[in-house]
Specification:
By secondary structure, the protein is of the alpha/beta class. It contains 18 helices and 12 strands. It has 2 domains: about 190 residues, 3-Layer(aba) Sandwich (Rossmann fold), CATH 3.40.50.720; about 160 residues, N-(1-d-carboxylethyl)-l-norvaline Dehydrogenase, domain 2 (Orthogonal Bundle), CATH 1.10.1040. Helix 9 runs antiparallel to helix 11, helix 9 crosses helix 15 and helix 15 packs antiparallel against helix 16.
Length: about 375
């Protein structure tokens, strides 16, 4: 980063969430010279970072980065220019409620990622809470990093080449990108927050890959490479069929959503004659292990917060989603949870009963 722009470098970021992605993002930002607050509800996750005074980075970035830790949300976010939410999507509702009385004028809140409907859910909750300040809501299509972290150490396997970002309303996109670009030049302009939501590739990979590898995961404790070994040619064919349903929902909303193979190329430069080959040609996936159990966020988060809202949108638009529905049903049976009941829907996102034209206008202008 250039050292000439001291006003940019003086910006303060608050990273909300100290899991794999949160540790990586907090460490990366601090390594670049930004002032960083790292918040986590549970102090246990912050013990290592608090003790050492920062995050030790390895992989794509090497070095130690000083980070200030907080378990008090109000103190963590007060006065910060940008709040980077890096929590599981099923924590968004509670966090939105907690942030409602705390967010400040012109403060930028970025969901990394929003999964499917994250910014819309935040906005719906803040509308009900009658938030009187004017923060700017944004979400990314996916997490910037392929990373793993524990204690005070974070390994960044790869920083994605491009990650689309959109705001609600979408006319704030240029302003937010200008502010974030000195830290994150990888962020590019998305169309709107439904586009970034429906371009959610985690919805394609994570739930189906975990559910359909349940026996292998339970037999080995996840002792195999999640993407490179867990995705066989046959399973890749199923993922492409599921992906086609996601793309069809986006098309019904008048949006052009990239296929999973197109996304692999834009994010990692991966190519292949098939999805299976493209995945095998993705070095960033090398060394990433499978979950040790199917009781994992790839199911408990990605099914209700990614697949369920896509299926709900499909139902409202008369777009069939049989493969998505199958994975939702299997996950609900495996976990004995009605994921459709607890997940996001057109109702919770404030889109029920709206025409495609009305939805488009709302996303662009932000008025209800």
């Amino acid at each position: 980063m250039s050292t000439s722009n001291e006003s940019v470098r003086a910006q303060t970021f608050c990273v909300l969430g100290a899991g794999n992605g949160g540790l990586a993002m907090a460490g990366h930002l601090a390594w670049m010279g930004f002032s960083v607050h790292l918040y986590n509800r549970s102090p246990l996750r912050l013990q290592g970072v608090a003790w050492h005074g920062g995050v030790e980075l390895s992989g794509a970035i090497e070095g130690f980065a000083p980070v200030e830790t907080f378990t008090n949300l109000e103190k963590a976010v007060h006065g910060c220019d940008v709040l980077m939410v890096v929590t599981p999507a099923n924590a968004h509702r509670e966090l939105a409620q907690q942030l409602a009385p705390l967010v400040e004028d012109n403060q930028i809140i970025v969901l990394n990622p929003g999964r499917t409907g994250g910014a819309l859910e935040f906005r719906s909750i803040w509308d009900k809470a009658e938030v009187t300040t004017h923060p700017i809501l944004a979400e990314t299509q996916t997490l910037l990093y392929a990373a793993r972290g524990a204690g005070y150490r974070a390994t960044i396997f790869r920083i994605k080449d491009t990650v689309p970002l959109a705001t609600l309303p979408s006319y704030h996109i240029p302003r937010v990108l200008d502010i974030l670009r000195p830290a994150f030049p990888q962020f590019t302009a998305g169309t709107n927050v439904l586009s970034t939501s429906l371009d959610n590739i985690g919805a394609v990979f994570h739930p189906a890959l975990t559910v359909l590898n349940a026996a292998w995961i339970e037999a080995t404790g996840g002792d195999f490479e999640y993407y490179l070994e867990g995705i066989t040619p046959t399973l890749a064919n199923f993922l492409e069929a599921l992906d086609a349903e996601r793309v069809a929902v986006a098309t019904a909303l008048g949006m052009r959503s990239p296929t999973v193979r197109e996304w692999l190329f834009s994010s990692y430069g991966s190519t292949g004659k098939s999805l299976y080959e493209a995945i095998q040609n993705t070095p960033a996936y090398k060394g990433i292990p499978a979950p040790a159990t199917i009781d994992h966020r790839y199911v408990s988060e990605d099914v209700p917060m990614s697949l369920v809202p896509i299926a709900s949108l499909g139902l409202s638009l008369n777009v069939a989603t049989p493969n998505i529905d199958l994975v939702i049903d299997l996950a609900s049976t495996f976990h004995n949870v009605d994921y459709r009941a607890v997940g996001r829907s057109v109702d919770s996102l404030g889109l029920a009963g709206r025409s495609v034209k009305d939805i488009s206008q709302f996303l662009a202008g932000g008025t209800r």
